Amino acid sequence: MRPTPAHAAAGPISDGASVPVLVIGTGYGGSVAALRLAQAGVNVHMVEMGMAWDTPGSDGKIFCNTTNPDYRSYWLRTKTKQPLSNFLGFPIDRNIPKYTGILDAEEFGGITVYQGRGVGGGSLVNGGMAVTPRRENFGAILPSVNADEMYNTYYPRANSGLGVSVIDPNWFETTSYYQYARVGRKHAQRSNFPFVFVPDVYDWNYMRAEDNGTVPKSALAGEILYGNNAGKKSLQQTYLAQIRATGRVTISPLHRVTSVSPASGGYAVVIEQLDTSGNVTATKTVQAGKVFFAAGSVGTGKLLTKLKATGALPGLNAEIGKGWGDNGNVMCGRANHLWDPTGSVQSSIPCCGIDNWNAGGAFAEVAPLPTGIETFASFYLSITKNPNRAQFTYNGSTGKVDLNWQTAWKQPSITMAKSIFDKINSKEGTIYRTDLFGTNKIWGDHLTYHPLGGAVLNKATDNYGRLHGYNGLYVIDGALIPGNTSVNPFVTITALAERNIEKIIATDV
Ligand code: FAE
Fold this sequence. Notes:
The chain is an alpha/beta fold. Helix content is about 25%, strand content about 20%.
């Protein structure tokens, strides 16, 4: 493929258009692919099913607050589906208008998978925790990838591209917004668990200015799950800003890819245009020389499974849809004593964790519970070494793709998380909260924030993400990673994408 003149055409893609490269999805994998291809002189079109998230609503803000979810909060739901569904045992979900909101709580038989929807993918809704796995754990995460290359070149490149940094430890010790984290540290250390600071993409200087009252509050006002109006460096501020500066990439928001099949000169891609109620307002077919699947683990896993089963891409191999895991996510809360308040004000950006990975199979984020009142609760999201893996399958009678994950498969995660919290509770004389996920329910074992796998590297694809069976089709997102990263996943997704696209540009473009 020869470099083409730069162009910065505005507006959505038109029916019958022809593009050298089409990228499905605008999250981490898709943004890395589009940026590096554009820098190599290739024009790229990115297709994103969610909204652009660049226009304020009637309240003057682009994103709504976690404590007050409105029409912008959920992807095509009429009621919120908050990860913490209850407080003091009472359900807290509320009715909302159906809208192409920012957070999708996608329900499968045994698990609800939370995902970001919009230009920027998961970076719009996530906590920004930007964690590079410990070197000694990498062999188990991506066994076919050269670890030296990753730790010398691609992890540093990803961390720099994402704008990752660590909280100033002096400010951490003094601000009331991290009292909950200091309590978490005290309890971890009194039970002899290693406590670690965790890097983030939030602008820590901005957060200090929030604390000083000199700028509008975002993390310190509880914004996170439905977007941050300031402070957080989502992909919109990093990779996507660089992409725009190349002048070679166009983006179609509210466009959803439904089919990819061989056609002369490459592939025919069928795309549905959506309105903000989720109705299909147009169906377009475009030609693409090469197609990158970057729709996230679930988006890519489902799409490829359907395309193989329905005969659009029959030459995909039998690994498609396999190797899906939840990164071992499980949540829980602990009830502290009255002399251990966690603070009525809490930063929504987590900055630390308890690392018991090698001894007990769990890495627990000390997470905020920014309710605006003192709850005396410590809250944790654990990432665990859960060995269970699920598979996507096409259901011919519904025309949908199912995932065979079972709720009971979370039991290993609970056991591993208990290796930390049973010990802390015993040392502190405290108990688990039972009111956050229902009534008398300790474990948030019904969900994941970290879907991974579905088109695993070196199985469904070659060792650089080229899909077996077809030239010019690539996977470049979390679907490549076989189910677990031992820590929060987006730095690894970004670094792997940086590695793969460098090879693809050198050999295929
Ligand atoms: P992703 O970012 O999901 O992007 C895929 C994009 O493709 C999305 O924008 C989709 O809307 C779009 N798409 C899907 N299907 C189609 C289609 N058919 N046509 C067109 N577009 C489509 O994929 N990770 C961390 O490392 N640290 C954290 O602190 C953290 N916190 C999280 C908190 C929450 C609430 C959630 C939901 C996730 C969190 N994650 C965190 C996970 C992280 O956001 C996720 O691993 C990455 O976003 C996955 O990146 P991908 O590029 O694979």
